[in-house]
Amino acid sequence: MSASRPRTDLLSPQRLRETAARLNAAAADHGHELATVFYEDSPQSATLPEAFAELTIECRRSGAHAVFTLPGYLGGMAVPRICLLDFLAARGNAQVGELVA
Q1: Are strands 34-37 and 2-4 parallel, antiparallel or unpaired?
Q2: How many structural domains are present in the chain?
Q3: Beta bridge partners of 51
Q4: Phi/psi class of residue 77: alpha, beta or left (left: φ > 0; alpha: ψ in -120 to 50)?
């Protein structure tokens, strides 16, 4: 079981469905079943992004150990990428796999 996390500020509304299908295919290619797609709005503050926190909670609750995201989606946020990865690993017991562009 896995989850994914696209950022809505980096995708046009027309590409959201296409992106979810791409993430679903990537999860299947890696032997996972995509359980949930979490959509993150434009990062606005230095706090943990709300959808990222929800993603972490769901990984812990469901036992999902893999998260798939598009390249660059963990960058450009107020919270540094390494902090997000560490938080997800420690609190959600999950690792992130970035798809190739």
Answers
A1: parallel
A2: 1
A3: none
A4: beta
Residue 6 sits in a domain whose CATH number is 3.40.50.1390
Select the more confidently predicted residue: 25 or 9: 25
Confidence of residue 2 (pLDDT cuts 50, 70, 90): low
pLDDT tens digits along 16-52: 888 888 888 988 998 988 888 888 776 667 788 888 8
**3-class SS of residue 44:** coil
Rounded to whole angstroms, the Cα distance separating 64 from 54 reads 13
Rounded-to-integer distance, Cα 56 and Cα 68, Å = 13
Query: What is the residue range of 59's domain?
Result: 2-98
Cβ pair 76, 84 in contact under 8 A = no
Provide the pLDDT confidence category of residue 86 given band limits of 50, 70 and 90.
very high
CB atoms within 10 A of CB 23: 23
Assess contact for 27 and 19: CB atoms under 8 A. no
